[in-house]
Amino acid sequence: MNAEHLVHEVIARYRLKYQPVRLSLARIKNAKRVEEIISGIDSKIKSRASDVQLLSVDNNQVSNTLTYKATTGNGEYTVKIRAVPADGSEKKVWEAKDVYLSCSCRHWRYGGCEHHAKKGDYLYAEDHPRGTLGKPNIRDPEGNNYVCKHVYRALQEAKKVYIDY
To answer: Are 99 and 84 in contact (CB under 8 A)?
Structure first.
């Protein structure tokens, strides 16, 4: 890391803390709670989630985002979970949080998960989707795949981080 990069990093952190940019959004976006997302999850996804290993977690305190590295077989995937207090407070109680979700696996993109996340307003970084966001006709014609097994497993682990003891 060079000195110029370090200076920009320090200035950015200072501005974020002491001079935050206030935005007024015309459209207020509400995410979904975990219980709403996984309530009708396919039992096959639940059973397959047991073979997912979570390699690491990066807890970003600034934006309340968890980044999990998940692996199954030879693949390594990135799962993003951003928890936002539903009532505007900074509670750490998981049940009081709305979440935004994303995964880098192929099932998220082609299996209907990304489509449902966009439609249900819980897609993390919705301005940069991985796929076309179209309704899947081949892999999930019934519309049951709200999350992939990596996201499901990461959500189970994230409860441990956000529950206030």
So the answer is: yes
Are the C-beta atoms of residues 42 and 142 closer than 8 Å to each other? no
What would the pLDDT profile of 6-51 be if each residue is shown by its tens digit? 888 888 787 777 776 655 444 455 667 777 788 778 788 888 888 8
Query: For the whole model, what pTM was predicted?
Result: 0.70
73: which 2 tokens?
Answer: 């077989």
Cα separation, 23 vs 78, whole angstroms: 29
How is residue 11 written in tokens?
């200035």
Name the residue with tokens 């990596």.
150
Residue 143 near residue 112, CB atoms below 8 Å: yes
Q: How many residues would you count in the chain?
A: 165
128: three-class secondary structure by DSSP? coil
Token pair recorded at residue 110: 């082609």
SS3 breakdown of the chain: % helix, strand, coil, rounded to 5?
35, 20, 40
Within the chain, where are the H helices? 3-18, 34-38, 43-48, 106-110, 113-119, 149-162
What residue ranges do the domains of the chain occupy?
29-162
Q: Which residue matches tokens 């981080």?
A: 161
